[in-house]
Amino acid sequence: MFVMATWGLNIVSIKYLTQHMDIQALAAVRIVVAFITVTLIIKARRGRIPKLGRVELGWVALAGFLVVYAHQVALVSGLRFSSAANGTLIMATSPLLSALLAALFYREKLTLVRISGAMLGLLGVGMVVAGSGAQFGLTGWGDAVVFVAVLVFVFGGLVIQRMSRTMDPLGMLWYMYLAGGLMLVAHAAMTPSSYQTGTWQMTWWPWLVLMFSAVIASGVSNIIWNAGIARLGISRAALFVNWLPIFGLLFASLFLDEHVTLTHVVGLACVLGGTWLGLRRVAPAVPRNGRA
């Protein structure tokens, strides 16, 4: 829940920062600062960067590509053409996609209750978007690219779950940020708009917001997120993603003076119910004779 609240505030922060900084440069700087943050945390814990074999390096590079690079690039590119309403609803399909893919790749039990929880959470998100007055409509390729962003994020979660069996979350995130950060820096370096003077001449407040986004939302929160996937599995952890647009709406109401209506409250109740259903553990059946 802390991670979702932080990521919700991060949505407002990034929306603010895009008015002051080039998008590709912003993504690269955030990840570079987050990489430095994770490095300092490891050193503060007197830990060492684990040495990895070729196979493990391949997995962390794949996770960095999916979660750090591809997700960010696809999401930003898709939202340029897709509406905010469509983008939010598409992102909310993450829990259901995670449950389906976890069942396919890790043979996790896909129960009707878990699917119902994911669908109920999606309904709540839809009500929140509708209550915000957003306009629905088909936006073609933009929606498709946002869906790709969600898909690569979910596949990245599956890779993280596999890696968490043998790697510490801190070391895993360090390598992911190293790989994905290098990709984002290379992308920004090849983008002419990244060299605009205004991008690097911000006042102190945008830089402070950038530090929050990079250090807390991208550094500390992702360490907790990876640890959550390791404990819960991607299908159960991803149910909390339904809270992301809820927190985003609340912080937007607080900082951008948007109104919260009864529809939003009902949507929040649906998300809460969906999360509870998805995380609910089913007790094993007891035979009639009372013996296991």
Instruction: Report the count of strand segments.
Output: 0
Structural class: mainly alpha
Radius of gyration: 20 Å
Question: Level of helix content?
Answer: over 70%
Task: Characterize the biggest β-sheet.
Answer: none
- SSE ordering: HHHHHHHHHHHH
Mean pLDDT comes to 76
Low-confidence stretches: none
Strand fraction band? Answer: under 5%
Tags for this entry?
292 residues; mainly alpha; 12 helices; 0% strand; globular
What is the topology?
Elements: H1 2-17, H2 23-44, H3 54-79, H4 84-91, H5 94-105, H6 112-131, H7 141-163, H8 169-189, H9 204-232, H10 234-237, H11 243-256, H12 262-279
Helix pairs in contact: 1-9, 1-11, 2-3, 2-8, 2-9, 3-7, 3-8, 4-7, 5-7, 6-12, 8-9
Task: Report on this structure.
With 292 residues, the chain is mainly alpha-helical. The chain has one domain (2-279). 73% of the residues lie in helices and 0% in strands. It has twelve helices and no strands. The two termini are 36 Å apart.
What's the gist of this structure?
By secondary structure, this protein is an all-alpha fold. The chain has helices spanning 2-17, 23-44, 54-79, 84-91, 94-105, 112-131, 141-163, 169-189, 204-232, 234-237, 243-256, 262-279. The chain has one domain (2-279).
